[in-house]
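Chapter summary example.
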Amino acid sequence: MSGGAGIEHFDVAVVGSGVIGLGVALAAVERGQRVVVIERGSEPTGASIRNFGHLCFTPQHGTARELAMASREIWLKLAADAGVWVREAGTLIAARRDDEFAVLAEFADARGAEVELLTAAETDARLPIAPGVAVGGAFLPLDLQANPRQALGAISAHLARTGVEFRNRTAVGAVRPGRVETSRGPIDAGEIVVAANHDLDLLYPDLAERHGIERCGLDMLRVAADLSAPLASPLLTGWSLVRYGGFAATDAAGALKRRLHAEDPMLAALDLNQMYTQLPDGSLIVGDTHYRGTAIAPFQPETAFEALLDVTRELFGLREVRVLERWQGVYASGPSDFLIERPEPGVSVIAATTGIGMTTGLGLAEHVVAGITGDRATITALKGTA
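The structure predicted for these 386 residues follows.
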């Protein structure tokens, strides 16, 4: 079908093939829509493949929690339908000081069966960390783990089998109601969803400025480490407890943050989230630091990587950790968890803006597509930014 001589027409055009863009395509094709995904690269290389693969549903708060739990069901369905590697591993948290355990105890009181508190002995038994490091911990059974390097390719292949068309190595120059102007010619669509992550400011700079959207860069590593046992679940630490919304909402989190920042201002300046996941090949993903700006310099100070390796050796009681890969992640960052805007009729611009796209993005996409196709919205309170 065409919207003019040589112009293709689709029901839904998606700009960007990260996890949110693919989620939009999935939600639309499941509703019988004809869908095209436009990606400037030959394959996704952005934030959606540069992360831990940790699907941390329970630690989210407010709207992010609702979208996370909606995403959980979609991830499990994709594991069955698309061959996405998903491990129902939960999340383990090591509390190294009493104030960290206080956050976990308060969080457990609020979430009930979603949080299992662990004694120091139970934590040592379940984690390959140095003996005596933890005063206690917690297990979050609902969380999942994916392999980001495998997941997007598997989802894309599944979508292609269901009829979604992909236009890779195709740059988008402009979007207006009913039309996407690309480097391969115009594409017409009844609805257009821009899910271009941090590059949304290239298409909608005024919108990005109005909502305070900038780029967040981060430093990450993949290492080989001789752990005393496999890491059965993604692992969070005290630095994680002052980042995720559910933990940060506890009364105890404020005192923890003050103590962490006073004791180690260098790690605080790196805006550390000390966490780990283990890939199927046994290697560990280690991270991460955070730094923000309208542009992110490609130059990564070695001091950040040295700090990540130091805290890793200390936590696991290791003398040596061998670095296999280093990389820089970049994602859209803003004052709220999400950007959801309708700048023009038939055009939606969406992003997860606090680094939780893998966890919440599929639920966000489902919600947005439900709204534009006239279905009942999954998250009734979500409008604009949340």
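To summarize the output: The chain has a mean pLDDT of 93.
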